[in-house]
Design brief:
Radius of gyration: 20 Å
Structural class: alpha/beta
CATH superfamily of the largest domain: Vaccinia Virus protein VP39
Number of helices: 14
Bound molecules: S-adenosylmethionine
Shape: globular
Strand order of the largest sheet: 6-2-1-7-8-10-9
Order of helices and strands: HHHHHHEHHEHEHHEEHEHEHEEE
Strand content: 15-25%
Number of strands: 10
CATH architecture of the largest domain: 3-Layer(aba) Sandwich
Oligomer: single chain
Distance between the termini: 56 Å
Length: 276
């Protein structure tokens, strides 16, 4: 069935308002226009013929699958292995060694929020694996979260396209990936050691749901948020961080960070320490 639906600008406005209210995703009309075709494809998938019917199912029937499909349609999931990898090197050379203690194996909890389809989280794991003895000295837990359920499923599968793995050094590609048809399958023991959850960063009580972290990576998500939502996220990260924990941001995410609550650790690296 081809979609004969052609969403008008006022219908897109209604969806933008709905998304803001129910998922925290704030999209200006201009931005939602970019996802028009993907939203119209949901009508085909759910065999819905009119906007009124679609909107009714969202608002009054609160169809979870429809809400998730709409959410998935408006997220920008661009990611790849080894993206801004200097931060991963800083992590293994300078941050993780601070947790090492003689005679014990301290637990270190790392959150990747958002993780999209897993490339960033797995890149961090491969850097840790390659750093030799860190894994014997630390009990590292890796958790990735993203609002887009289709990305979480992809992350759990651990199969990647050529485009995704393009920047992985050849030696490590041979060591950790197996070519399966057109795809690269990440070593199963690495995939099994990672935890992924579908979570909206604007959900309430995330501390209760996920506990506290020593290290948080949040790269290339905050740039899509307005100033108020961005501040809200910084507060959420602050509440999820243990005392003295480290926050890694993407190069475009850090502006307007509250310097009274986060101290810059290293110039040029967009890496911050939580100040209590
Ligand atoms: C451009 S990707 C960045 C992925 C990865 N951090 C990187 O830098 O390569 C942005 C991700 O943010 C996720 N996202 C957007 N809004 C979110 C929210 N409210 N809660 C959790 N994840 C969200 C999207 O689903 C998308 O996968």
């Amino acid at each position: 069935m081809d979609s004969s639906v052609d969403l008008t600008s006022s219908e897109l406005d209604k969806l933008a308002e709905y998304l803001q209210k129910h998922t925290g995703i704030h999209l200006e009309k201009k931005k939602l226009q970019r996802f028009k075709r993907k939203i119209e494809a949901i009508f085909v998938k759910h065999k819905i013929a009119t906007f009124n019917d679609f909107y009714h199912q969202l608002r009054f029937l609160a169809s979870e699958e429809l809400i998730q499909d709409l959410t998935n349609a408006v997220t920008v999931n661009e990611t790849y292995f080894w993206r801004e990898h200097q931060q991963f090197e800083l992590l293994v050379k300078e941050i993780l060694p601070l947790y090492v203690r003689e005679g014990s194996t301290p637990k270190v909890r790392i959150l990747v929020s958002p993780c999209s389809s897993g490339e960033e989280l797995y890149s961090i794991m491969l850097h840790i694996l390659e750093a030799g003895s860190l894994l014997e000295k630390l009990n590292i837990e890796m958790i990735g979260i993203d609002i887009d359920s289709s990305m979480i499923e992809k992350a759990k599968r651990g199969f990647y396209s050529q485009r995704s793995i393009d920047k992985v050094p050849k030696k490590l590609l041979e060591k950790y990936f197996k070519k399966v048809g057109a795809f690269y399958q990440l070593e199963r023991s690495v995939v099994k050691a990672a935890h992924f959850m579908q979570v909206n960063i604007f959900e309430k009580d995330l501390e209760k749901k996920m506990g506290h972290f020593d290290i948080i990576f949040s790269r290339n998500m905050l740039i899509y948020f307005n100033a108020a939502d961005k501040q809200h996220c910084f507060e959420t990260f602050h509440s999820l961080m243990k005392e003295g924990a480290t926050l890694f941001l993407g190069h475009a995410d850090a502006n307007n960070i509250d310097k009274k609550r986060f101290k810059l650790l290293k110039n040029g690296f967009h890496v911050f320490e939580k100040i209590v």
